[in-house]
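Hi V.,

Quick status before I head out on leave. The structure for the redesign project is tokenized and pasted below; the design run finished overnight.
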């Protein structure tokens, strides 16, 4: 059985209130109250008030137990916008839009509450796993390519040639032998 509660003409923009309602959707009613109690946002207070009203409706009107209730939907729609003006420089005015919203919460006892699944990052193929390992990658045609090696045999480092002739700094004869 489903029980609804609606808070109409709440003085908050729908964009700000949707951020809070996304957090409680799919949780049990008691978990949702805990989440809203520790949220520092203004919308959390308004959504909490609506959720408490929905729980009271479920207990008194539908005679449901609070322990079995689940937040099936938490929807925020846009309400009318109050249009006001603020005085600006040189006698001009700028518009102010004071937005309102309608918060609707649907509780149900049909589903068993479960924790939302955690997302895992997907790993893409074709990357080298680590610097020391080589990976095989497939081209678009489906054929395997040879792994890329760090140092190819064709590109061996060149050896520096040593000077062949005697230089002025070093002499082939020992200076002590020349004196004798």
């Amino acid at each position: 059985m489903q029980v609804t509660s609606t808070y109409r003409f709440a003085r908050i923009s729908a964009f700000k209130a949707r951020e809070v309602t996304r957090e409680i959707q799919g949780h049990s009613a008691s978990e949702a109250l805990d989440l809203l109690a520790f949220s520092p946002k203004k919308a959390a207070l308004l959504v909490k008030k609506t959720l408490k009203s929905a729980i009271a409706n479920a207990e008194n009107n539908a005679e449901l137990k609070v322990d079995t209730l689940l937040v099936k939907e938490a929807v925020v729609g846009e309400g009318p916008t109050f249009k006001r003006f603020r005085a600006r420089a040189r006698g001009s005015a700028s518009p102010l839009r004071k937005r309102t919203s309608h918060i609707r919460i649907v509780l149900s006892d049909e589903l068993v509450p479960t924790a939302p699944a955690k997302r895992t990052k997907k790993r893409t193929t074709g990357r080298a796993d680590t610097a020391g390992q080589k990976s095989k990658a497939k081209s678009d045609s489906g054929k395997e390519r040879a792994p890329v090696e760090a140092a190819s045999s064709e590109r061996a480092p060149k050896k520096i040639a040593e000077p062949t002739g005697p230089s002025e700094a070093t002499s082939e004869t020992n200076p002590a032998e020349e004196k004798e």
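Above is the designed sequence. The helical segments are 14-24, 29-37, 42-60, 175-179.

G. will cover questions while I'm gone.

Best,
W.
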